[in-house]
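Incident log, support desk, overnight shift.

02:14 A customer reports that sequence design results differ from what the structure should imply. Their input is reproduced verbatim below. On-call engineer (initials T.W.) acknowledged and began investigating.
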């Protein structure tokens, strides 16, 4: 079952974020905390939205975290920050359901499209996006960031 995330889901959500970081060979880089995620996602001005995939037992086995960004060329866009399905649940269609749910949210909010990133070596994810969505995977842009 896919549903909107709740505060009480955050410990399991953070565990999945850490699982993703390990998969992406960056496990030591996760600095976020449940408390920070609670403040940032469930306060008066949420910085992100969250969908979760729940198992029949009620465990969180997948997540999709999104937020809104603005493109001067395209207008309001929904940005998929992370989509994670725990390893034991992959291949059961949960990733597609989560992805489709974020797309539906973007359409509901009158966004002009959805954007996300994928590591160039993550062949399973790249194949997923190509198989289901005929996604435009642009290799021209270089990602940049500054940490404060």
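02:41 Re-run completed on a clean worker. Output:
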């Amino acid at each position: 079952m896919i549903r909107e995330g709740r505060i009480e889901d955050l410990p399991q959500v953070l565990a999945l974020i850490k699982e993703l970081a390990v998969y992406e060979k960056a496990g030591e880089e996760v600095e976020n905390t449940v408390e920070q995620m609670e403040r940032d996602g469930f306060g008066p001005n949420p910085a992100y939205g969250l969908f979760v995939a729940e198992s029949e037992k009620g465990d969180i086995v997948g997540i999709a975290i999104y937020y809104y960004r603005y493109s001067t060329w395209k207008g309001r866009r929904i940005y998929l920050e992370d989509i994670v399905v725990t390893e034991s649940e992959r291949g059961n269609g949960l990733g597609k359901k989560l992805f489709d749910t974020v797309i539906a949210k973007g359409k509901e909010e009158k966004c002009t499209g959805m954007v996300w990133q994928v590591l160039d070596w993550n062949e399973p994810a790249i194949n997923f996006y190509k198989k289901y969505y005929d996604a435009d995977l642009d290799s021209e842009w270089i990602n940049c960031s500054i940490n404060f």
